[in-house]
Amino acid sequence: MKKALVCGAGGFIGGHLVKRLKQEGYWVRGVDIKEHEFSVLPTDEFVVGDLRDPLTVRAVLDQQFDEVYQLAADMGGAGYIFTGEHDAEVMHNSSLCNLNVLDSAVHQKVSDIFYSSSACIYPQSIQMEADQSGLKEAFAYPADPDSDYGWEKLFSERLYFAYQRNFGIKVHVARFHNIFGPEGAWKGGREKAPAAVCRKVAEADHEGTIEIWGDGEQTRSFLYIDECLEGVRRLVKSDFSGPVNIGSDERISINELVKMTADIAEKKISIRHIPGPLGVRGRNSDNTLIRKELDWSPQQPLRTGIQKTYEWISRQVLNR
Questions:
Q1: Residue 276 pLDDT
Q2: Rounded CA gap, 165 and 155, in Å?
Q3: What's the CATH architecture for 3-179+223-246?
């Protein structure tokens, strides 16, 4: 039986990853600063611990795991990342987690380690138009991320590859593009656009009005959690280190996302545009490299994932 350590298991993607690994027959230890908010995870062991503390990391990474997944980070949606109010915390907290996990992984001779980077590493200068055609992995340099969150992710990518070169540890790096789905943050300021839109539509009257930051013509692509996990597992089982995009190439504006969600909810929703943090104007995933290296790319239509996510969030709204 293979053993895996999931760092950040109490979070949205980490929690789903734990379930996927258990379905595949792994023995799984999860670790996070908190337990999962929405689900009782089927981990063999779950440790509540702070990965910024090297002693905690040594305690949970105390053996030669077959695979380590490092998803722990200080992060959130635009309302958390783009205000500038949390930059020092984000950079400090996430960097410490990565430094500690890598150091212990080397000492324990871990075979494979996965790091979840972000599309936020890409230069803001090539994301100024809403019709952005797709971000290729090679576009990362010259570097100019739109946030300190993106700068930290780019630094940590280089950190992982430095450890691979100097210590022989096998790393796999993926740049996530807006992963969404059930059992993720849907209120409180750390939620991302799909969850925020689903919540607002669920809370609105049948012919209600919701608020959207900016003019709503900013574009993104959003990837449902199941396809994200499929990409992660294929990457870790391959000999490819990356970095590689794991994201959908189905671009949509926020206004269109509201219309899609309202249609799913069978509501007639109007939009009131207000000032707010926006990030870049247009972002989309180019999946040429993942198709070449892994012979796979995400195919599920966005609407399918939004349907599942809206159903889950609407239940949370009703039951709160």
A1: 84
A2: 15
A3: 3-Layer(aba) Sandwich (3.40)
| 31-42 average pLDDT score | 96
123-147: per-residue pLDDT in tens?
999 999 999 889 999 999 999 998 9
pTM (two decimals): 0.95
- Degrees, nearest 5: CA angle 219-250-252: 30
What is the per-residue pLDDT across 274-299, written as a single tens digit (0 to 9) for each? 998 888 999 999 999 999 999 999 99
* Helix residue ranges, H only, the chain: 12-23, 54-60, 78-81, 87-107, 148-167, 193-203, 225-236, 254-265, 288-294, 302-319
CATH fold label, 182-221+250-282+301-315: UDP-galactose 4-epimerase; domain 1 (3.90.25)
Q: Among all residues, which ones are annotated catalytic?
A: 149
**Residue 12 is encoded by which pair of tokens?**
């949205």
CA triple 160-53-164, angle to 5 deg = 15
8 Å CB contact between 312 and 182: yes
Residue 254 in tokens: 């926020």
